[in-house]
Specification:
The complex is a heterodimer of chains A (491) and B (315). Chain A is an alpha+beta fold and 491 residues long. Chain A has 10 helices and 20 strands. Chain A is rod-shaped and about 145 Å long. Chain B is rod-shaped. Chain B starts with a helix and ends in a 10-residue tail after the last helix. The chains are: A alpha+beta (491), B mainly alpha (315).
Chain lengths: 491, 315
């Protein structure tokens, strides 16, 4: 009788203990984000010739050879791509949702109503050209209309400033995450070269990559010694332990500087710190924030012609509206005569300037000191009862098609299509957000099915490992009983 | 496929969030009675409703405009009626004066009556409406007939331009003239006017006023002078009657437009309600369905989430 059985039993106990530890760890991390289920590789030991029958090979028990981590590169990468897409849609939808309130129409006190009120006050004036109260009401309605435009423009500007702030802070986050990934690359290389499995570090790095994908679309390739190289577009962000910083300030020295304003709105354009080249940001929340402000085509290391983004285009359209409104009213004023038989003074000014090109939705106001008698209701001089100029202005403001921005439409038609545009953009972004969230959840479920922890399966493993452990322990007591009975028979 | 606790909780959460957003949207529709709150809820309906509101608001403005045009026209019409009845009396007086049976004191009395009538006509021509002189054209703060006689086109506040028509917009690209300046073409013929002083004019209102003055002096001259004036007086009456017909036509047009505007407003309001109003029956039913589904998701979720093989094994 040999003692091989004791060796087999002790190895089995050790292997099952290890397996139980891994199962326990899996169960403990069942809901840890980024955790990948681990499993013990149990390998049958090489058989050895039996002492009694040297020609027969007898099994030699079990050894735990390694603890491996469940992975699926394809699914992980799909989940990260979809994470970028979903973050993009969510951030875009959030940004656009915040401006929906500005264009909440039709509502009492909304721009559409104020425009109608202003137009109609000219109609009333045309019928009562000498009435000071009709004149005063034109001025008051003009002031209300101007301040409605001002407040819409201010809210948009505040929103644009906060999006700019988001871009700056998200670029900082990208740099931080890049630093952490580079650091983990170093630690993983150290552990790997010592022959250990850096599973926990790999999980941590995976979680950081997912965080980074939320900000910007990335691609990555495996480097030497378990390290990972991360790229944004074709420019590296992390190679091994080295990181490349992204600047969120517009460079001023480079000949190919990106624009610092788009349509008068200050914007932040991320650039690579090392070569001042543009960062090819396609997706992620950073991409969404950029899309809210501007579209900047990139050809290699050069910037193309900038185009306004969602918010800036709304701002520009409001400016076009304010400008056309001011020009129409001021021109009509100039054509007519006021109660003092003078040609009408400009009605709207932009801050201190009455030049049409400098009037924006943000600065439009009724000219300071404009008195009720200065409204040019009459087309001819010395005709206080003539309201035909006011009537012509009413028709121009409410029904006449004019060139506003690049469209040929009426003032109210232009605003209607702007509201429709804001609504459609918001609806599209919201639909995109829901759809991409559904796809992401489905992909996450697939990944979780492969790399996540199934508690039922772990429970089964736990029972199996417990039973194997009990069996191995029983083997020891059985062997001990056998030896004792042999010794007592001999003794 | 292995189903991990994360899979179950993720799917459950997503389903619940989708249902919650549906319920929130339906509840908003039910509580506000509006199909959309923000443009992004239903961009097409939001844009359409905005357009309808815009048109509706224009219609309201045109209705107000037409109502005030109606006021002007009624007032002008009333003045013209008074002028015509005054003219009937003037013609009677002229006919009486054309008789050769009157002695000089009778003629003086008749001439005085006619002067009184001229003053009355002057007062009628100076009728004010809402602080404006009805027949004064654009210079409506000065009385068209001053105390000086004879009144002439120049030197008084009388409208000198044929274009001094006060036009009110009563519908898109539809205007109605609400005032009479006397220059309207009502059949007057400058060649037909009485040739004596004051200067002949084709302004029929001024002509009528001046003709009464001429009549008064003709009466004192004798029946022959009055007889010669009669055709001109008849022409004046015909002018005034035509002018009243013109005003009547304008008034009828305004009234028709008002009724069209009313119908259009009512149709548009119906359209706005159809476009932006929530279909309550549908919303209530959908909300009830969503609530059931939401409860089912919550109940099944709470049962399943707490379950695993661990609940049943007892190692």
């Amino acid at each position: 009788m040999g003692f091989e059985v004791l060796g087999i039993a002790s190895q089995a106990i050790a292997a099952q203990q290890l397996a139980l530890d891994v199962t326990g760890n899996n169960m403990a991390n069942a809901t840890t984000p980024g955790y990948h289920a681990e499993s013990v590789n149990l390998t049958e030991n090489a058989p050895a010739p039996d002492a009694v029958m040297p020609t027969t090979l007898i099994g030699n028990g079990v050894t735990a050879t390694a603890v491996t981590r469940a992975t699926n590169t394809f699914l992980s990468s799909s989940v990260r791509n979809q994470t970028s897409a979903n973050s993009y849609a969510t951030a875009l939808s959030q940004g656009l949702n915040q401006v929906q309130n500005i264009f909440q129409e039709p509502q009492s006190g909304g721009l559409a109503e104020m425009m109608n009120q202003f137009n109609q006050s000219w109609l009333t004036l045309s019928e009562n050209p000498e009435s000071l109260s009709a004149r005063e009401s034109v001025i008051q309605d003009g002031k209300t209309l101007a301040s409605t435009l001002n407040s819409m423009a201010n809210t948009l500007t505040t929103e644009e400033a906060s999006v700019n702030q988001n871009i700056v802070s998200q670029v900082q986050k990208v740099n931080q995450l890049a630093g952490q990934i580079a650091q983990l690359n170093g630690q993983i290389a150290t552990v790997s070269t010592s022959g250990q499995q850096p599973n926990a570090l790999l999980d941590q790095r995976g979680a950081l990559l997912t965080k980074l994908s939320k900000l910007v679309h990335i691609s990555y390739t495996n480097g030497p010694a378990g390290s990972l190289d991360v790229y944004i577009g074709s420019h590296p962000l992390v190679t091994g332990e080295k990181t490349y910083q992204v600047d969120s300030k517009s460079p001023t020295t480079s000949a190919s500087s990106p624009p610092s304003t788009i349509g008068g709105t200050p914007v932040t354009v991320p650039t690579w710190a090392d070569n001042q080249a543009p960062v090819q940001i396609k997706s992620g929340s950073l991409g969404a924030n950029i899309a809210l402000l501007y579209q900047l085509p990139i050809n290699g290391s050069q910037w193309g012609t900038p185009a306004p983004g969602y918010l800036t285009s709304y701002g520009q359209k409001l400016n076009n509206l304010a400008k056309t409104l001011a020009t129409t009213v001021n021109t009509a004023q100039g054509r007519g005569f006021d109660l003092n038989n003078n040609a009408g003074a400009p009605f709207f000014t932009g801050g201190t300037s009455s030049t049409a090109t400098q009037i924006t939705a943000g600065n439009i106001q009724v000219a300071q000191g404009l008195s009720a008698s200065q409204l040019a209701a009459a087309s001819t001089s010395g005709s206080p009862g003539d309201g035909s100029n006011a009537d012509a202005l009413y028709n121009a403001l409410s029904n006449q098609k004019m060139t506003i921005g690049s469209s040929q439409t009426t003032l109210s038609g232009y605003y209607q299509s702007l509201v429709g545009q804001v609504g459609l953009d918001g609806q599209n972004a919201s639909n995109l957000s829901t759809d991409s969230k559904n796809t992401l959840t489905s992909l996450q479920n697939d990944l979780s099915s492969v790399t996540g922890v199934d508690l039922n399966q772990q429970s089964v493993s736990m029972i199996q490992e417990q039973q194997s452990y009990v069996a191995a322990a029983k083997l020891i007591t059985t062997q001990q009983t056998m030896i004792q009975s042999l010794l007592s028979a001999v003794g | 496929m292995e189903i991990t606790p994360m899979t179950i909780s993720n799917s459950l959460l997503q389903a619940i969030q989708n249902q919650e957003s549906q319920i929130s949207q339906l509840q908003q529709e039910e509580s506000t009675g509006q199909r959309f709150q923000l443009p992004s809820d239903n961009p097409i309906a939001a844009e359409t409703t905005l357009g309808l509101h815009n048109t509706l608001s224009q219609l309201k403005a045109y209705t107000q405009s037409a109502q005030s045009a109606e006021g002007w026209l009624n007032q002008t019409n009333g003045s013209l009626s008074s002028m015509i009845s005054l003219w009937d009396q003037a013609l009677q007086t002229a006919t009486q004066a054309a008789n050769s049976t009157n002695n000089s004191s009778d003629l003086n009395a008749l001439a005085e009556t006619v002067r009184g009538m001229q003053k009355n006509l002057g007062a009628l021509l100076n009728t004010q409406y809402q602080g404006s002189y009805l027949f004064a054209g654009y210079n409506d703060q000065t009385a068209p007939i001053s105390s000086a006689f004879p009144a002439s086109e120049s030197g008084t506040a009388w409208p000198t331009q044929t274009a001094e028509a006060r036009q009110f917009d009563i519908n898109t690209k539809t205007q109605v003239t609400v005032n009479l300046t006397g220059w309207e073409s009502v059949g007057q013929n400058p060649a037909n006017t009485y040739g004596g002083p004051p200067t002949p004019t084709s302004n029929f209102l001024l002509q009528a006023y001046n003709d009464l003055g001429t009549l008064a002096s003709a009466i004192t001259k004798g029946p022959a002078a009055v007889k010669g004036l009669l055709p001109y007086l008849n022409q004046d009456l015909s002018n005034l009657t035509s002018a009243q017909a013109l005003e009547g036509g304008r008034l009828a047009r305004v009234k028709n437009t008002l009724s069209q505007l009313k119908n259009a407003s009512s149709d548009l309001s119906q359209n706005v309600a159809n476009t932006s109003g929530a279909n309550m029956a549908q919303v209530t039913t959908q909300l009830a369905q969503e609530e059931d589904a939401y409860q089912a998701a919550l109940q099944s979720g709470s049962k399943i989430l707490s379950l695993s093989l661990l609940n049943y094994i007892n190692p």
